[in-house]
Amino acid sequence: MKIGFFTDTYFPQVSGVSTSVRTLKHELEKNGHDVYIFTTTDPNVTELEPGIIRMPSIPLASFKERRIVVSGVVYAYYAAKELELDIVHTHTEFGMGFLGKYVAKSLGIPCVHTYHTMYEDYLHYIANGKILRPYHVRQLSRFFTHRVSGIACPSQKVVDKLLEYDIDTPLSIIPTGIDIDKFKEVSPAMTKEVRERFGIADSDLLLVSVCRLSYEKNVQTIISGMPKITAALPHAKLLIVGAGPYREALEAQAASLGLTEQVIFSGEIPNEIISPVYHAADLFVSASDSETQGLMYTEAMASQTQVVAKGNDYLNELFDDRSLGVTFAEDHEFAETLIAYVADSIPLDKELLQEKLYDISSTAFGHRIESFYEDAFDYYANVIDRIEEEEIDEKRFIPLRFFKNR
């Protein structure tokens, strides 16, 4: 099968979407498929990359580390036609996503979509949330997903939101998988080097947060809880890994609380070398409100690092055994939850962990997407193609709907 991914975000831009797209590309290619990524240009790209087709783009006004396509419709169409794509898979609801839908329609092939981002959590980036409202997100989501042949949702949280938007396109829950082998084994020397680099003693309790430093990731709640944590656990240190527009505010918050020795900012660490950081941690911590899934949770799990995180339907199910981690419901519960979890000193259940690892693996991810594509081809032939070829009245047509948790 020849597959075209269309995404506004790809490496060297670092994000969960970039990681998900690259992971899926590698897994599908391992299974014998050809995958081509249509994405935006980036000034940090210095050489041609096999299988990556870049469209002219400019920085997004309110989110300058991300880019939006400005031209290349004809080029993308002829490139896709020459590659003889069998299916288009979009990973954005914006520029490259609409370009992917146009290419699919022009070539007469199915288009499927992954809904990666809960945009209602990001409205504050545009005029401080005074222009765009949740209603506009609903309308955009309905408009974009119209006549796609399936939507891959990373979690039940995304499914619930799309159902709330009254989207009737087939939905399928497919969490992004990770390369388990990449996180399984790390030498003691590597974890020791991480601690030494950031001044963490062997006797310190190291809490690690890994995320983009933006308001919606809610790192401020973790920092707010540190005075109570250090009062109960004086040897606790917090290592915050990541970059982003909220870093200065977080650094100022830590300083105002007198935590400059206890809270350490590492800056961004490339995903390729993040594994030793997880292994060096005693606990992975997060209070994020905006995750559709959150790869860092599964990366921590694969690294055999226990987790304390703000819960949602996905995380509550992922950490359904306290030996793997624990969730809390409200921001103010973070510190007490962590202190109690440390006091309980529950050993990691490695047998249970092994049972979980396949479900969060990139191997499982690739197989689930393959099955998703097969359903999409059927849906396209039996519904989308019939609507277009026979001019069936869409408003009266009841689609063949599938909803699967793979």
From TrEMBL:
Signal peptide interval: none
Keyword presence, Manganese: no
Classification via Pfam families: Glyco_transf_4 (PF13439), Glycos_transf_1 (PF00534)
Residue span, Glycosyl transferase family domain: 192-345
Gene3D superfamilies in the cross-refs: Glycogen Phosphorylase B (3.40.50.2000)
Superkingdom of this protein's organism: Bacteria
Keywords from the UniProt entry: Transferase
SUPFAM superfamilies recorded: UDP-Glycosyltransferase/glycogen phosphorylase (SSF53756)
CDD domains named among the record's database cross-references: GT4_UGDG-like
Single Gene Ontology MF annotation: hexosyltransferase activity
Keyword Transmembrane helix: no
Residues annotated as domain Glycosyltransferase subfamily 4-like N-terminal: 14-181
Name of the protein in its database record: 1,2-diacylglycerol 3-glucosyltransferase
